[in-house]
Protein: Exostosin GT47 domain-containing protein
Organism: Sorghum bicolor
Amino acid sequence: MRDPKPRRSQAAPTLAAKLRKHSTCLLLLLWFALSLCLFLSAAPPAAAPLSRSSFLRSKPRALAATTTGAAASPVRIYVYDLPARFNRDWAAADARCARHLFAAEVAVHEALLAYAGRAARPEDADLFFVPVYVSCNFSTPNGFPSLSHARGLLAEAVDLVRVRMPYWNRSAGADHVFVASHDFGACFHPMEDVAIADGIPEFLKRSILLQTFGVQGHHVCQEVEHVVIPPHVPPEVAHELPEPEKAQRDIFAFFRGKMEVHPKNISGRFYSKKVRTELLQHYGRNRKFYLKRKRFDNYRSEMARSLFCLCPLGWAPWSPRLVESVLLGCIPVIIADNIRLPFPSVLQWPEISLQVAEKDIANLEMVLDHVVATNLTMIQKNLWDPVKRKALVFNRPMEVGDATWQVLRELEVLLDQSQRRRYVGSWRR
């Protein structure tokens, strides 16, 4: 039997054939990738706002005083030129608008207009200042500042800024600065319970607020990026007593202001949490305490004669007495639990003031006597430092070391912190 006819074996594929096959697949893959890239680039970008840190410049900033006395600060702020109905018209209607305890909104605006670091072009700015005066309508029948118009006026200003320029939209306002210089700051209502219920306007929750209100711990009205600033006192007060160490201080403890025996406010709570009432009850007949309930236009002359100036809370924890006391060399005695005070890194409040708990009113005389017997001289020496007194005054134009200068310093810190968060986030990714 013959062997079967051998089958022709298939030839192995050549190298050239393999290359042709793989080249075709590679070309198809490249064509698909290019088509996908072109499709994605044509799609509109997501409209999500940038985070606070994503638009900040990486250039380091430093506030410093030059030998000529001018502020050398690369912090660049663009000041919006809003229609007069948002600011100038209010100031023109009432001269007190630029002088009362809430006038920081006017003082900061005017100081920034003359600020050497003001950005002429918005594209060069680190921050944007929105000058809206909401506290100018000061006089009302019940004595409260009228803030019923505040939210509407601010919302209108924000809408205007959104339409005119793209800078609000790119960050949802995170690099925009406002002033909230009244009792409960960013909540824009003079009564705490209503302020808490209303909360911070939604359109401002990403912005930076300069506000006199500040407390330790949680509070609805400070749940926004903010800087605690001092209440406004007319700058000339700083010059009424240029050498407080030479003043004759024949008053031991001084207070002049509202101090009713039955001081219920419209919300049903006791005014000043009854602290002022208890002051009157405990020390109204004590000859060491100079307590007066009636107004007196020249009351600052009494402060200049006093060793201790009592600064109890009123509707809110803070009071202009705090600034007036420091300027006039009278040791402020702060009676407001959990208060946060402005510019603590510069002023070092424990060295220039006393804090007495609200529950310890009955022991106040003993506390003050102890200070007189121990460290009175050291506190006065710290308090009379011109650098500390200047830090609480809003000068126009701004001066190195004054309150507006300190605000810029605090804003610089916020910017640098945001940059650090950005770098840490990038490193962790």
Remarks:
- The two ends are 78 Å apart (CA to CA).
- The CA atoms of residues 352 and 380 lie 7 Å apart.
- Residues 1-12, 14-19, 36-72, 422-429 have pLDDT under 50 and may be disordered.
